[in-house]
Amino acid sequence: MFGGGRGNVRQQTLEDIAENIRERKFKRIVVMAGAGISTPSGIPDFRTPGSGLYDNLQQYNLPYAEAIFEINYFHHNPNPFFALAKELYPGNYQPNLTHYFIRLLHDKGQLLRMYTQNIDGLERMAGIPPKMLVEAHGTFATATCTVCRQNYKGEELRNDIMEGTIPKCPTCKGIIKPDIVFFGEELPQQFFTYLTDFPIADLLIVMGTSLEVEPFASLAGAVRGSVSRLLINRDLVGPFAWGSQRHNDVAELGDVVSGVKKLVELLGWKQELEVLMNVGGERVMEK
Ligand code: OAD
Which superkingdom, per the lineage (predicted)? Predict the structure, then answer.
């Protein structure tokens, strides 16, 4: 009725987003990811009822599920965390199509940064260079003595963790903790890269996260209002669920691998992605 008015702006679609990526109009893409991108690799997420980790910690007799990642509880009893670390330690699982899709965005020079909450290391395994990653909740790649703050490589802890022994600092005998960010700890300095990344992003892709944990969740609101946001997730989360969707918010609901496959088909990148996955798969096997 009122031609050109804000109310008449057409709702964007996955096809629109694909066209803009394909034509390289989107060249500074920021990805925000969570545990849902790794469930297709066999790693449980946290909050999905039934299969999520927080519903499956009975064996550890925790006072409440999140205690496994609470720093005060860790000082009291580190055993549950190290049991989980043994399971999650890099090497047990392999990246899936979702991780390789982000790697392909990088290879094409269109990824500005990937912000991940995951601690499984699958982004690095898929060949996304560490400088392109903000591992907001830390990594098993490095570790720190909880007493004298001596730094260690994650590999130096591998044997102890795999044998079920709590790793201790050779210098002061303090417990060495992988550099995973616990509730009650500060996020790594690199998290603040968002202050320069988000204002210049031209597309935000949010995938496999409930956007329940701050401050990470708020990043979804840190792009300019004119910037398209694409959610690929089983359910609507964060600003996509609040009902005041922007015309340039697009939600592709369902399994993340199916959603990414649909986008890849629209982009015409299927073959390239397959090649990347085959090469990556072989490299993983060779390790
Ligand atoms: P959550 O378990 O909270 O959310 C995972 C989201 O991914 C949910 O919305 C699921 O529906 C969705 N999902 C799972 N599998 C999927 C699939 N195959 N396809 C599509 N969607 C799928 O995990 P996060 O958001 O990552 O913190 O949790 C955030 C933080 O909470 C974690 O980093 C962790 C935890 O406490 C720390 O470890 C410090």
Answer: Eukaryota
